[in-house]
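Researcher: Next sequence.
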Amino acid sequence: MLITLKEILQIAEERKIAVGSFNAPNLESLCAIIGAAEELDVPVILQFAQCHESWIPLSVMGPVMVEMAKAAKVPVCVHLDHGETFEYLQQALNLGFTGIMYDGSLLPYEENLENTKRAAAMAAETGAGVEAELGSMGKRESGTGEGEGDDTKIYTDPVLAGQFVEETGVDALACSFGTTHGIYLRSPQLDFDVVRNVRKETAGIPVVMHGGSGVGREDFREAIRAGVRKINYFTYMDKCGGSAAGAYIRAVKEGEPVFFSSIIREAEHAMKENVKAAMKTFALMD
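Model: Next structure:
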């Protein structure tokens, strides 16, 4: 069942949980995510990030995501993650995406503000929801590279967040409070007061956690209690699929054929189990 970003975040707010937002830059990850959500009967957000364009075009993957969301047995939002240009945002909206994120986090505040206003106006024409980012988690959400030691990380100012949300009218705000994109080399030091104060200054806007992969279970729970309602998760899911594929290949006896269809089956199964574990944590099921 395809629903909007605002609608799915309302579900999260009512249940005091976070909805998992999983990037799906290939059919195997898409099937793993939908399958996990249906098995657990939880709402889910499917995402495609602009930085995935070099892997597979949005024009190819987007329509598949929308159609699978419509056919799903659970509420699904199809969301553009880290949209960096207005042309790309519009492409996602034209394909039927029900949520878009404009990422102007590395721009000067006033430029981010004005661009986010424009993105919100674009989304309003189709009824889609809008996520923005204030502060910066650092490296792009491509699932590659190492997230630590990134001097582009900027913690979100709650008072500024209040002004930003009031002027832009966004439905969700990605905040920087200690997480990072990519692989964690050490445990993150999270400042949950940033989340609490952003919620206070914005009259309770749903806060989005980027860089969710690699965060511990209890930190996830504390973030949700503080007001996080959307958690982005991709890198470790992707890594899990890669590890399963590698293990399958290494297990094939010398001289026996290696079938690509068998590789992706193993990867999809592993990703589904990884996503299920994340969903249980986000939905407070374990």
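Model: The two ends are 25 Å apart (CA to CA). The longest helix spans residues 260-282.
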